[in-house]
Design goal:
single chain; 264 residues; alpha/beta; Rossmann fold; 2 domains; 5-stranded parallel sheet; 9 helices; 21% strand
């Protein structure tokens, strides 16, 4: 990769790193090249770091345990998910409110922790996250509740997500039938929404100029960094290829093969 002469100086000056997970740290059940070197570098240099994911399925504990099974020791406090960002948003908007949830345990747990109760009768919100238990009955109930006045929330705006068997429909695709049937647009919390990035920065405890965001997608990770004025690094270990970068009207600060190339 062609890197500027001050690359090492810029990286060394960063106190905090916000990194995407799938396509950057792992793919399915496989750790990607350079990751072990990167984690060691972060710890050896006393860098603050946060693994940020648009997926709402797993809790930080589950993510920590997954990486532990893959050979990486990462504490729970180093993870931040779109489920957590969604829960914080609902808590700030409607403290003690209620929600009808279509999603996995990671989302339900985050909402409970934020004081949001589950309600399938007259909730304040209908919240959609990734799930493998999506069916017509849930869509029908969600449509009825939104028409009845519940606000429609999506944990993230991803249409698809990667898996070992190919792509799968993600949050925005699951919310689409409800949006179409009700005529109401969902408000999506996850990247590239600057709200999630501000929450992550607060949790990390660093200023924008001290922080770097690392991701594998131009349409979520990189644009999220640009919109919040955080320096960006695109790694080519996931979704966006080197050839596809020119299709976007914005560019990352750095383009690297993998996160191991950040170690200076």
């Amino acid at each position: 990769m062609n890197l500027p002469e001050n690359f090492k100086e810029i990286i060394a000056s960063k106190k905090g790193f916000i990194s995407d997970m799938d396509g950057v740290i792992y793919h399915g059940s496989k750790i990607l090249p350079g990751v072990e070197k990167f984690i060691k570098w972060l710890k050896d240099n006393d860098k603050r770091y946060l693994f940020l994911t648009n997926s709402s399925e797993r809790s930080p504990r589950e993510l920590s345990q997954k990486l532990q099974r893959l050979g990486l020791e990462i504490e729970e406090e180093n993870f931040y998910t779109s489920a957590m960002a969604t829960a914080e948003f609902l808590k700030s908007q409607c403290p003690g409110g209620s929600a009808y949830v279509i999603g996995e345990p990671g989302l339900v747990y985050a909402l409970y922790e934020a004081g949001i109760s589950m309600n399938d009768y007259n909730p304040d919100y209908v919240v959609i996250g990734e799930t493998r238990s999506y069916n017509f009955e849930k869509i029908e109930k969600a449509v009825r509740l939104v028409i009845g006045g519940a606000k429609l929330i999506g944990t993230n705006p991803d249409l698809t997500g990667p898996s070992e068997n190919g792509i799968f429909p993600a949050c925005k695709a699951l919310a689409a039938p409800i949006e179409i049937a009700t005529g109401k647009s969902a408000y999506f919390i996850g990247k590239p929404n600057a709200l999630m990035m501000r929450h992550a920065m607060k949790k990390l405890g660093t200023r924008r100029a001290e922080t770097m965001i690392i991701g594998d997608r131009m349409d979520t990770d990189i644009i999220a960094g640009i919109q919040t004025e955080i320096d960006t690094t695109l790694v080519l270990s996931g979704v966006t290829t080197k050839e596809e970068i020119s299709q976007f009207s914005y560019r990352p600060l750095f383009v690297l093969n993998n996160v191991g190339d950040l170690c200076v």
